[in-house]
Design goal:
The structure holds two protein chains of two kinds. By secondary structure, chain A is an all-alpha fold. Chain A has a single domain, classed as Cytochrome c oxidase-like, subunit I domain (Cytochrome C Oxidase, Chain A), CATH 1.20.210. Chain A has a two-stranded antiparallel ribbon with strand order 2-3. In chain A, a hairpin with a 5-residue loop joins strand 2 and strand 3. The longest helix of chain A is centred in the first third of the chain and has 35 residues. Chain A is globular, with a radius of gyration of 25 Å. Chain B is built from 13 helices and 15 strands. In chain B, helix 11 packs across helix 13. Chain B is an alpha+beta fold. Classes of the chains: A mainly alpha, B alpha+beta. At the A-B interface, helix 4, helix 9, helix 10, strand 1 and helix 11 of A face helix 4, helix 5, strand 1 and helix 6 of B. Strand 1 of chain A pairs parallel with strand 1 of chain B, so a sheet runs across the interface.
Chain lengths: 651, 440
């Protein structure tokens, strides 16, 4: 305890000179792999979230293509029923938890601190921990492929089919533990980002002067903070049933399987919104920039986002219209669900109104944003048709639903993310992505996407249930399934073109002698464009002082003496030069990755043998102590921190 | 083909209004290219499915959706095309008018959709409660029980409500729902599998439950779906306007062979239905043919630990269900196996002939009660025959025909599907199949 009290008891302005324990020094590497493993820089962590998501996207995408090959023709034997069930379960699980959510986290991590004018998030080491624990949880989930097969219960994994009697392999245990562990990352991340938005905004940036993307991040993180625990509760109950013989979902012992459905969807519906809201935030930045107008009805955009966040909690049972919850509940949730279309509709109309009368530059980022508006509208409309509970009894669990949520999550969220990548790529990496490849990718994606998922509306209304390993010729589903399969290959190819574009554009940029892309290549509106590209380690040389919404734009454009708006400065002229002298940054740390690595060991232990929990727990305790006892800063490191020490020594 | 009648009807929906509106619009287009789709939700054949159809077409939901779709899509594209500028001629000082919003407009497009949705919700709520309306007690009730991966149907013929007062204590209460759903050998009532036979033009109330995991009972042309949840008894109903075969599919993911858990409803003329019911209430006859008799002997040795055949000779213990080595503790009742046109969870046809594809709705149901006689007559004009080859393959190695976790769990001693019978010789298999053919 004495060791702990010492640094805590420091009078302000004094530096703990001696390190508590020699082993607990901060990493000293300045380049190479270790800097990535130990970084606490929100930008590097954001990039790692994105890279990890793209890695998992390949797994989920291969699974998707396998599903489409299997369903291309009737009575296909490409995949066995057993493997098909694993493939569609893992496709859904990986795409939701390990692709869409972390891409949202990538944007939030990278951009939100820049948009609010902060040097990092509130808790940098916890931020690193959040990423690593998500990544290790995701890896653990995917090791199930090699350890007896993936989960086979569907992504919502209904009880009692998720019980040991009906799914005796370890797949669902991995689903349970992997997502449980990844969920820890979401939770710690949400606390971190909420604190950052609420406490670390630049001077003058009141909440109503905060960019829409940051607002959507805030709403998203609140949804995560409150939704993940509900899933965790359900998973603990399920793990107790499967691993320790409890009876939470054992019908013979009087359990009601609908308990799982309620818990899952109380988590699952806010989950849907926390996947889409980051993309809404992204296009709310892109559309004004390239329409050269402020976002239409900023307060409505913000409050509709908040309204979606609140209403998202009151509609979960619309996933259960045929579960037998009784007509009164069904009617209540029908009405609630229909009205959640209102704030979403407001957003769509406000985006259209933003473009209305603008001077629109149609580049790749803008194309993806426009596609999001239209494709999300289609998904939203089919959503309204599900909300009509009576008719939903014909639609639910058919391909109409599959079409609906892919229009929302792929045509909506994912298109927004790709648009966001084109938009912010120069800020993150210092070079522009090729517009030519980008536009080609866009059109290939639009065509592939709509050919894949458009026909699923028809298939669903023609009665094709989802999660079917095969169908018969007599069902008459052949044509549209073949169309969807062809579309899916176009879509798969066009999706990975983002990587191709990154590679080719990088090579071109390097061979052109790495020209400076400038701080503000798009003539954009928010603070992240007021610093150099790629964003320097320390983000801002000094705290920006904000006086209005889109402050950076208003510093560039002012009214002249005749009251006409004119560009007084270019973005590059007024951008901060990127001089980090005198800036104190949080130092890197080994402990977040060690702590995160200890948790899956416990996870494997819970599944296989409890003995493994002991080394896992020991490693975890070590990591926690290491974390706690780590010196607040490493005095020997030869970078910006010196200045900080000198500053303190002066005092 | 017998479907030509059905197809003609598809162009003439019942109400004039729905006929008028179904001729226009995207939805009608989908419907028009939906020939030969036995599960099509846009071709209702009963009042419940019709109500769901009307909710979308007559009360105009599809059209509201279509209008919004066109406005946003084409409006959005037009706005972009109209306001597009050439990025090469980018002039930072050529700014558009900087509108920040318009409160009136925004309030309007918040309230307007809300009002439209409020109007639609009136129709929806009305339909939700309509769907729950049940018959007077005493009319035909059918209990639907899902299990991996087939459906069982129990008919409360004598109206004593044997499945509602399942434990026979004279009171219908919660205790009845905890019953292991053992096979009832109530001579008045009927237990069948895979195919539900109903009288056309009459509402049939259903009580739905499950013996293992959640399944969902869905006959798209007659009604929407409702889940069958173990431990819960849900109500639902079906009605077919005219005789016909209506296929369906389990629509809640239920594990390994979810894709092969199919079913159908056979709606018969009321007189035909009464004849069917009378036959089902008979016990099976012990065959006289020597092959079939030998098959019965094998059946007695190999099959009765799971399958019930009520012929008055086979004896089943009181706690029969507990002894069945399946997680669901139930296998299809085979008493009138040969009266059904499909088996194995609705994936195979018992008879070969016109319209007997289990997934097709083309079967001419006016001969449904005669299928077994037609197949006995080699000169039958319709050329129906007992599909012994397929059935033999099934009996010999069921898990090879349909993925089933048949292996008995070493801890519980329970499996989840029909076992293979490698110990049966070719001849013995023929005999079993010959025996099954007598169970009409």
């Amino acid at each position: 305890m004495a060791m702990m009290e010492e640094p805590l008891a420091l009078p302000s302005g004094t530096v703990a000179r001696s390190r508590p324990l020699g082993a607990f020094s901060r990493p000293r590497e300045t380049s190479g792999l270790v800097t990535w493993l130990t970084t606490v820089d929100h930008k590097k962590i954001g990039i790692m979230y994105g890279a990890a998501a793209l890695f998992f996207l390949i797994i989920g995408g291969v699974a998707a293509l396998m599903i489409r090959i299997q369903l291309a023709v009737p009575d296909s034997e490409f995949l066995s029923a057993e493997f098909y069930n694993q493939v569609f379960t893992m496709h859904g699980t990986v795409m939701v938890f390990l692709v869409v959510m972390p891409i949202g986290a990538a944007f939030a991590n990278y951009l939100m601190p820049l948009q609010v004018g902060a040097r990092d998030v509130a808790f940098p080491r916890i931020n690193a921990f959040s990423f690593w624990v998500f990544f290790f949880g995701g890896l653990m989930l995917n090791t199930s492929w090699f350890l007896g097969g993936g989960a086979d219960g569907g992504w919502f994994n209904y009880a009692p089919n998720n019980g040991i009697a009906f799914s005796p392999s370890n797949g669902i245990d991995f689903w349970n533990m992997g997502l449980f562990i990844a969920g820890i990352g979401s939770l710690t991340g949400s606390v971190n980002l909420i604190t950052t938005v609420l406490n670390m905004r630049a001077p003058g940036m009141s909440l109503m002067k905060t960019p829409v993307f940051t607002w959507m991040t805030l709403v998203t993180q609140f949804l995560l903070l409150l939704a993940i625990p509900v899933l965790t509760v359900a998973q603990i109950l399920l793990a107790s049933d499967r691993l320790f013989g409890a009876n939470f979902f054992n019908v013979e012992q009087g359990a009601d399987p609908l308990l799982w459905q309620h818990l899952f969807w109380i988590f699952g519906h806010p989950e849907v919104y926390l996947m889409i809201l980051p993309a809404f935030g992204i296009v709310s930045e892109i559309i004004p920039t390239f329409s050269r107008k402020p976002i239409f009805g900023y307060p409505f955009m913000v409050f509709s986002g908040i309204a979606i966040g609140f209403m998202g909690w009151g509609v979960w049972a619309h996933h259960m219209f045929v579960s037998g919850i009784g007509p009164l509940s069904v009617a209540a949730f029908t009405v609630a669900t229909m009205f959640i279309a209102v704030p979403t509709g407001v957003k769509i109309l406000n985006w259209l109104a933003t473009m209305w009368g603008g001077k629109i530059i149609v580049n790749t980022a803008m194309l993806f944003s426009i596609a999001l508006v239209i494709q999300f509208t289609i998904g939203g409309l089919s959503g309204v048709s599900h909300a009509l509970a009576a008719h939903d009894t014909q639609q639910t669990d058919t391909y109409y639903i599959v079409a609906h949520f892919h229009y929302v999550l792929f045509g909506g969220a994912f298109f927004g993310f790709i648009g966001g990548m084109y938009f912010w790529w120069p800020k993150a990496f210092g070079y522009m992505l090729s517009e030519r490849i980008g536009k080609f990718q866009f059109w290939a994606m639009v065509i592939g996407f709509n050919f894949t998922f458009g026909p699923m509306h028809i298939l669903g209304l023609q009665g094709m249930p989802r999660r079917m390993q095969t169908y018969s010729d007599a069902h008459g589903f052949n044509t549209w399934n073949m169309v969807a399969t062809i579309g899916s290959f176009i879509l798969g190819f066009s999706t990975i073109m983002i990587l191709l574009n990154a590679f080719i554009s990088y090579r071109k940029w390097v061979s052109a002698g790495r020209p400076d892309v400038g701080a503000d290549p798009w003539d954009a509106r928010t603070l992240e464009w007021s610093i150099q590209s790629p964003a320097p380690d320390h983000n801002f040389d000094h705290d920006p002082v904000v006086t209005s919404l889109d402050d950076f734009w208003h510093r560039k454009y002012q009214k002249d003496e005749n009251g006409v708006l004119k560009q007084f400065h270019t973005g590059d002229e007024i951008a901060q030069p990127g001089n980090g002298e005198g800036v104190h940054l949080p130092a890197p740390s080994y402990w977040p990755i060690v702590l995160a690595g200890a948790i899956p060991i416990i996870g494997y232990g819970v599944i296989y043998t409890l003995w493994l929990v002991i080394p896992g727990a020991l490693l975890m305790m070590t990591a926690l102590y290491g974390w706690a006892l780590e010196p607040a800063d490493d005095l020997d490191i030869d970078d910006h921190h010196d200045d900080h020490v000198k500053e303190l020594e002066k005092v | 083909m017998s479907t030509s009648k059905t197809r003609k009807r598809s162009l003439m929906p019942r109400s004039f209004l729905s006929r008028a509106v179904s001729l226009v619009g995207l939805a009608a287009l989908l419907s028009a290219c939906a020939d030969d789709k036995p599960l099509n939700t846009f071709e209702p054949r009963g009042p419940r499915a019709q109500a769901l159809y009307d909710l979308m077409f007559v009360s105009g939901t599809w059209y509201v959706m279509g209008i919004v779709f066109v406005l946003v899509t084409f409006g959005g594209i037009l706005v972009v095309l109209k306001n597009k500028v050439n990025p090469d001629e980018y002039d930072p000082n050529d700014l558009p008018v900087q509108t920040h919003g318009n409160i009136t407009l925004e309030v309007a497009w918040t309230i307007l959709p809300a009002v439209v949705l409020a109007i639609i919700s009136v129709f929806v709520v009305q339909t939700i409660f309509e769907l729950e309306e049940e018959n007077e007690p005493g009319e035909l009730d059918v209990m639907v029980i899902g299990q991996q991966w087939w459906w069982e149907y129990r008919y409360d013929v004598d109206g004593d409500g044997f499945f509602t007062d399942a434990n026979g204590d004279g009171v219908v209460d919660d205790a009845d729902q905890e019953l292991p759903l053992e096979i009832a050998l109530d001579p008045d009532d009927v237990v069948t599998a895979t195919e539900m036979v109903i009288p056309a033009g009459e509402q049939v109330d259903l009580v739905l439950t499950s013996r293992d995991v959640i399944h969902s009972f869905w006959i798209p042309r007659l009604n929407g779906k409702r889940d069958t949840v173990p431990g819960r008894w849900h109500t639902w109903s079906l009605e077919a306007d005219d005789p016909g075969k209506f296929t369906g599919w389990c629509t809640e993911y239920c594990g390994l062979s979810h894709a092969r858990m199919r079913m159908s409803v056979i709606a018969l003329e009321p007189a035909e239905f009464d004849a069917w019911l009378a036959n089902q209430q008979q016990q099976a006859e012990v065959p006289t043919d020597s092959d079939a008799l030998a098959g019965r002997e094998i059946f007695a040795n190999q099959c009765v630990s799971c399958h019930v055949i009520d012929d008055g000779e086979f004896e089943y213990p009181e706690n029969f269900a507990e002894t069945v080595p399946l997680v669901s503790h139930a296998a299809p009742n085979l008493t009138h196996f040969a009266s059904r046109s499909t088996y194995a969870g609705g994936i195979f046809g018992t008879y070969a002939g016109p319209g007997t594809d289990p997934d097709d709705d083309a079967l001419d149901v006016s001969i449904y009660n005669q299928l077994s006689q037609l197949s006995e007559n080699p000169d039958s004009p319709d050329d129906y025959r007992w599909n012994s080859a397929e059935l033999k393959r099934w009996v010999a190695n069921a898990p090879g025909q349909k993925a089933m976790a048949s292996d008995l769990n070493p801890e519980t001693g329970l499996g989840r599907g029909m076992l293979p019978f490698p110990q049966l010789s070719d001849e013995e298999l023929d005999q079993v199949v010959a025996y099954l053919a007598t169970l009409d």
